[in-house]
Amino acid sequence: MSEQQIGPGKQVTLHFALKLAEKGAVVDSTFDKDPVRLIVGDGNLPEGFEKPLHGLTAGTKQTFEVAPENAFGQHNPSNIQKLPRAQFAPDLNLEPGLMLSFADKANGELPGVVVEFDDELVSVDFNHPLAGHTLTFEVEILAVEDAPEQA
């Protein structure tokens, strides 16, 4: 029997590290904790990270560069919104870099980062924090199996 390769409908157990390509700073990693298990094609992993895994087998270690358009998109200046300071609690200690949670139109959670503020307006960046960054995706494939049947 040949080793299974990663592809649609396969369950993969792996360790990964996600780093900023230009700085090498680690954004997230499982190498120092339990590995993750995912099903290829279920939508939980962005295609730009999933596609390079296709064809790999258990025991493989690989490193890929993922361009912004295949990861979290380019930084979009129109995603920076100026909101009235009055919409924020008066006792809220605003500072640049502060991440706040907002409700979107469907009442889902939408994170935003304070860019700048004054007494009248607060500029909030609603871009994904990794938007515009080329990322390094390092993986170690531990197991490749047929995905369990969904009940």
What's a concise summary of this model?
This protein is an all-beta fold and 151 residues long.
Which short descriptors sum up this protein?
single chain; mainly beta; Chitinase A, domain 3; Thrombin, subunit H; 2 domains; 5-stranded antiparallel β-sheet; 3% helix; 40% strand
Report on the structure:
The chain has 151 residues and is mostly beta strands. The chain folds into 2 domains: 10-72 and 131-146, Chitinase A, domain 3 (Roll); 77-125, Thrombin, subunit H (Beta Barrel). The chain has one helix spanning 47-50, and strands spanning 10-20, 26-29, 36-39, 61-66, 80-84, 99-103, 109-117, 121-125, 135-146. Strands 1, 2, 3, 4 and 9 form a 5-stranded antiparallel sheet that branches. The protein has a 4-stranded antiparallel sheet with strand order 5-8-7-6, with no helix packed on it. Strand 7 (109-117) and strand 8 (121-125) form a beta hairpin.
Q: In terms of structural class, how would the helical and strand content be classed?
A: mainly beta
Share in β-strands: 35-45%
Round the Cα radius of gyration to an integer and report it: 20 Å
- The number of helical elements comes to 1
CATH level 1 class label of the largest domain: Alpha Beta
The CATH topology assignment of the largest domain is Chitinase A, domain 3
Count every beta strand, where a strand is a DSSP E run of 2 or more residues: 9
- Overall number of structural domains: 2
Q: Give the low-confidence spans.
A: none
Averaged pLDDT, please? 93
Which range best describes the helical content: under 10%, 10-25%, 25-40%, 40-55%, 55-70% or over 70%?
under 10%
- N-end to C-end Cα span: 28 Å
